[in-house]
# Entry
Amino acid sequence: MKNINAIIPLLVATTLLATASCSKDQFDKESYNEIVGYQFMVDNADPEHDWCLTKNDTITISAESAIRSVQVLTSDPYVSRTAEIAAESVVFGGSVALTYTVPLTMQTIYVEAFDASGNDLGYVSVNYGTKTLALSTAVLTKPGNIRTTSYQTFTYLYESTFPVPDDFDYNDMVLRISKYHPELGNLFVLDLKVTLQACGADELYAAALQLVDIKYDDIESVEIVGNTPMDADYPMQRLYTNDKVWTRGRHGEAVINLFECAQWAMGKTKDELGDIEVIHYNTSHTESEGRSAIAASVTATYRITFKESDVAHSLTFDRIDPFILRTGSNGGVWEVHTYAHKFDSTLKDVNSSAYDNHVSWALVIPKSDFRYPLEGMSICNYNEETDETFGPYMGFSKWMQDHTTNLDWYQTLNYSQLVY
# Structure
């Protein structure tokens, strides 16, 4: 991390006066962006960066009567052990439209067909962007038995300190999220499986999940499978979320309450004063009393019943926006969203639009087992003056300088000892 010593917190606090006073006259945006640019880990970052690593498309499949269901897969299921199900459906009336999300670098998708008993019939590979596909058993390839497949899972990583820049290790909150229909023939119901993998923040925070462009009134119900929330037995007064599974956002959005306190969800421990203990969970290879611990991840599956089947069936990962809620130094509440929704104020009235810059306090990685940096280790550092790059993912710096290149940087880990 770049070092500007003790002056950084003072300068940042000065620029954040606008939040406390609600006066834009006291906010120096130019100074604030200069501070963020200095503290950010990559010099000369692309000002047009959108922080997006994925793309969406829809393919309409027509199929003969022997084919009763289909899947869109991310790799050859007969060769790869990491093939993920990006979309699936029963074939209704001979055809079905599947909307899916894949990494920007993916040029080929695989469509697998099944009979009425769920037996695999084979697959065809097509170019990404193919709009229509006619399936028959005659065109399918079946070289053997399908190897392991799993539902597509994305990793969401956060810095909790927005709008203040910090170490950019992106491990203050680490979530793994997958989605699927629990009953293949019921397109009204969708499961979101959310796992809290790590919590490396120095402060307590809550989290919720916004379903982008989906209103509270579009949903019939949300329940937790097994009825056990991630923050079960939370012992304190709730400040950010309510005790309901889902709630209405400030603008009518559908919002799922994930947990009131990440530290309680992972550790469920209190300090000697009876307060929830602020410990870093799963961000260090070693444990340190009162500082860091290794803990089991925490998972909850949210079963969402939509009023219209096409709303559930077309939900893509870019419309899943988990966000942090935390209290700032001035007592106001901040929301920390993914970059595309950086300035949304979903549950709290947050005036964050003034902090407009190319920096994101969140990353969305289209990889289920992405290994995130250890505590205090920036995901990558690049110094333009010396042309030196260091960090666990060195390709990140090239992507930051040009958002059209190095789109698969997260696939190359340069220093395994620097990640969890």
Observations:
- The radius of gyration is 22 Å.
- The helical segments are 7-15, 17-21, 29-39, 262-267, 309-313, 395-401.
- The chain has a mean pLDDT of 91.
- The longest strand covers residues 54-63.
